[in-house]
Specification:
alpha/beta, 2 domains, 7-stranded mixed β-sheet, about 20% strand
C-alpha cells in the first residue's frame, strides 16, 4: 500500500476513534449540516434519483458522508477508503446501524491502492486535506482522486482552509466553542495548542482552488462555512 505521512494516520488511534462522534460535532459547528448539504450538492449535480458510484475518501469515523447521502439517494453505492482500522471499525458500526453496509465496499488503505477502473461518478474528501502535511501530500491525494473519477464528475472537498495563526479571532472563537461545551480554561488552551501543532490546512480558499486546478478540477463553488472550515464542490475537467 502507498505509505502516507505517518503522523497523519497514527493520530486516528483507538482512543481518537472512540471519542470521534462527540468531539467532531463540537470542533465543527454544523457538522451534520455540512454533510447533509454535501449530499444535496452531489444529488443536484448528478441528478436526483439516478444510480451512482461514489468514492468516499477518509470515510472512517462516523461515515456521515455515506449516512447522509445514502438516506437521500437509495440508488447510490459507495466505496469507502480509510487508512485507520479503528476509524474504519467505527464506520462499519454506523453503516450497519443505518442498514448501508450492503451498499458500501469498505477498504482499509489509501486512494492510490484503488484500481483506476471502473471510474466513479462522484467523490467526497471531507476532513482529510488539512491533516496532510505539506503541499506535495495534498496534491498527491487530489491527483489520486481525480484519476479515479469520470470526466465531469463532482468532488466534494471540505476541511479547514486558513492557516490557524493567521486568523486569531476565529481561533479565539473556536476556543469559546469548546468552553461552551464545558471545557475548562486550561483544557481550551491545550486543545488550541494541539490544533496549532497537529494539522496543516491550505492557507486560503485561493490556495484550495490552486490545488484543485493542478489536479485537473474546475474552479470550486463554496457552499458551507464554519470558522476555519469550508466546503466546496468542483468538477473534474472533461
Amino acid at each position: 500500500m502507498t505509505t502516507p505521512p505517518p503522523e497523519s494516520t497514527q493520530k486516528f488511534d483507538p482512543s481518537r476513534a472512540a471519542e470521534y462522534q462527540v468531539q467532531s460535532r463540537i470542533a465543527l459547528a454544523g457538522y451534520d449540516a455540512c454533510h447533509e448539504l454535501s449530499a444535496c450538492m452531489l444529488a443536484a449535480t448528478l441528478g436526483p434519483g439516478r444510480p451512482a458510484q461514489v468514492l468516499v475518501v477518509g470515510a472512517g469515523g462516523g461515515a456521515q458522508e455515506i449516512v447522509s447521502a445514502g438516506a437521500l439517494e437509495p440508488q447510490w453505492r459507495f466505496t469507502a477508503v480509510d487508512p485507520s482500522q479503528p476509524m474504519l471499525d467505527l464506520a462499519l458500526e454506523r453503516l450497519r446501524e443505518h442498514e448501508l453496509l450492503e451498499r458500501t465496499e469498505m477498504r482499509l488503505g489509501y486512494v492510490e491502492d484503488l484500481p483506476l477502473e471502473p471510474r466513479f461518478d462522484a467523490a467526497t474528501l471531507i476532513g482529510v486535506l488539512h491533516h496532510l502535511p505539506g503541499d506535495a501530500a495534498k496534491r498527491a491525494i487530489l491527483d489520486a482522486v481525480a484519476t479515479r473519477l469520470k470526466p465531469g464528475a463532482p468532488l466534494i472537498l471540505a476541511g479547514n482552509r486558513y492557516a490557524y495563526a493567521s486568523e486569531p479571532l476565529l481561533l479565539a472563537a473556536w476556543g469559546e466553542r469548546w468552553r461552551m461545551f464545558g471545557a475548562a480554561p486550561e483544557e481550551v488552551q491545550a486543545k488550541l495548542g494541539k490544533i496549532l501543532q497537529g494539522a496543516d490546512p491550505p492557507r486560503s480558499e485561493a490556495e484550495v482552488a490552486g490545488l484543485l486546478d493542478g489536479a485537473g478540477f474546475d474552479a470550486p463553488s463554496w457552499f458551507f462555512s464554519s470558522l476555519f472550515w469550508g466546503a466546496c464542490i468542483a468538477r473534474r475537467r472533461v
